[in-house]
């Protein structure tokens, strides 16, 4: 028969979780990075959900066309990884955390505005480049700014934020697509990244000047 964990062990687990969350809350760089990651993961990861519908309804392409567009995202991701490797020895990349999500949002909005296959391919290459670059910098920022004893808990929260928020964004994108079409959904997702980032930036400026 399976052995039930002792109550004090369960209590210790909950205390460790609370301690990890408090550590993130009290360390601004970790909290800010996770909030930005939450925004990007919620609304930028929808490209994979929207792309099949967009390919068929707007571009009037079939499976082959869809596969090529997904490859374009991979091409952008590849060059994004090379870019991060090239700049990795030049110190902190704090500006990327706020600026690259804006480029991701811009590529989403542009995706909603285009109606040709070539331009959509270009948008996806750009999106892949900035998305992988941002994800790499966010991960690295969390790793190097976290004490060893908290690293497991912080990265667990990062994984939860990065992967667990996607279904919420998928639901949002699906509702917009159902009512207004895939182009509007791309634009809406881009706007939903920009607005909270703008609010975060204003809050940061006000905090520094206060």
TrEMBL record:
GO terms for cellular component: plasma membrane. It is a multi-pass membrane protein. It is found in: Cell membrane. The chain crosses the membrane at residues 34-54, 66-88, 95-113, 119-142, 154-177, 183-203. Keywords: Cell membrane, Membrane, Transmembrane, Transmembrane helix, Transport. One of its GO terms (molecular function) is transmembrane transporter activity. Residues 21-210 form the Major facilitator superfamily (MFS) profile domain. Its main location: membrane. The keyword Transmembrane applies. This is Major facilitator superfamily (MFS) profile domain-containing protein. It comes from bioreactor metagenome.
């Amino acid at each position: 028969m399976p052995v039930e964990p002792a109550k004090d062990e369960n209590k210790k687990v909950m205390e460790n979780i609370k301690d990890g969350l408090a550590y993130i809350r009290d360390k601004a760089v970790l909290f800010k990075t996770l909030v930005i990651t939450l925004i990007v993961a919620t609304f930028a990861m929808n490209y994979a959900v929207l792309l099949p519908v967009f390919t068929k309804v707007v571009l009037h392409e079939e499976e082959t066309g869809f596969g090529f567009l997904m490859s374009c995202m991979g091409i952008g991701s590849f060059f994004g990884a090379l870019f991060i490797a090239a700049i990795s020895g030049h110190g902190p990349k704090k500006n990327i955390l706020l600026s690259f999500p804006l480029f991701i949002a811009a590529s989403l909005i542009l995706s909603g505005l285009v109606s040709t296959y070539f331009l959509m391919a270009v948008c996806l290459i750009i999106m892949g480049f900035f998305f992988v670059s941002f994800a790499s910098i966010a991960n690295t920022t969390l790793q190097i700014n976290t004490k060893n004893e908290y690293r497991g808990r912080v990265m667990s929260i990062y994984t939860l934020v990065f992967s667990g928020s996607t279904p919420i964004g998928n639901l949002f994108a699906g509702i917009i697509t159902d009512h207004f079409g895939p182009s509007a959904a791309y634009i809406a997702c881009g706007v939903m990244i920009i607005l909270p980032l703008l609010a975060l930036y204003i809050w940061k400026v006000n905090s520094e000047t206060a």
